[in-house]
Amino acid sequence: MQKEKITKTGLGFDIHRMAEGRKLVLGGLEIEHNKGLIGHSDGDLVLHTICDAALGACAGGEIGEFYPPTDLSIAGISSVVIARRVLEILKERDAQIINIDCTIVAEEPKMRRHYEAVRKSLNQIFKIGLENISFKAKSHEAIGEIGRGEAMACYAVVTIKI
User: Of 2, 27, 43, 142, which one has the greatest count of Cβ atoms within 10 A?
Assistant: First the structure.
């Protein structure tokens, strides 16, 4: 007898400082900008946030457990590799992502012109259909580190069937 699948939701959050001389990678896509995100990996806080939300939805931990920042052998790792591992974990648990809602909080660069490209990149990674992926941005109204362009933050809600 097959178990009836249920819907679960996970919330993800991440924040990274920005620095000149780093590539800006968001949602698996390189965005042209004079600063990038500092991180042990490529700093893709969009994928980090979505992955943590997906793991949260299936009570699977968080990405730092699988890719600890103390592991020097993975320094600079592509966050797409991290996302693929998270998808393997979901598959092992017979879970599947059915919706992603992601909001980046940044003063710069202005993200509206990148919305569709990031959504398409996310769909290439997660393969759930563009109609099931939302990506948007909000400013931080010139408040704090984000408002000064020194950092970016991201929130994501991921819904799964398990």
Answer: 27
16 half-sphere exposure, CB direction, 13 A CA radius = 24
In 3D, which of 1, 28, 10 has the Cα closest to residue 156? 10
Q: What are phi and psi of 28, to 5 degrees?
A: 80, 5
**In the 8-state DSSP scheme, what is residue 145?**
H
Helical H segments across 23-103, by residue range: 45-57, 63-66, 79-92
Q: pTM of the prediction?
A: 0.97
CA 46 to chain CA mean position, Å = 3
Is the alpha carbon torsion for 127, 132, 129, 106 positive or negative? Answer: negative
158 CB-near residues (< 8 Å, 6+ apart): 9, 10, 12, 50, 53, 54, 56, 57, 97, 99, 100, 101
The domains of the chain, with CATH numbers, are: 7-161 (3.30.1330.50)
What is the tens place of the pLDDT at every residue in 30-63?
Answer: 999 999 999 999 999 999 999 999 999 999 999 9
30: Cβ contacts below 8 Å, ≥ 6 apart: 23, 24
Query: How far is the C-alpha of 143 from the C-alpha of 162, rounded, in Å?
Result: 39
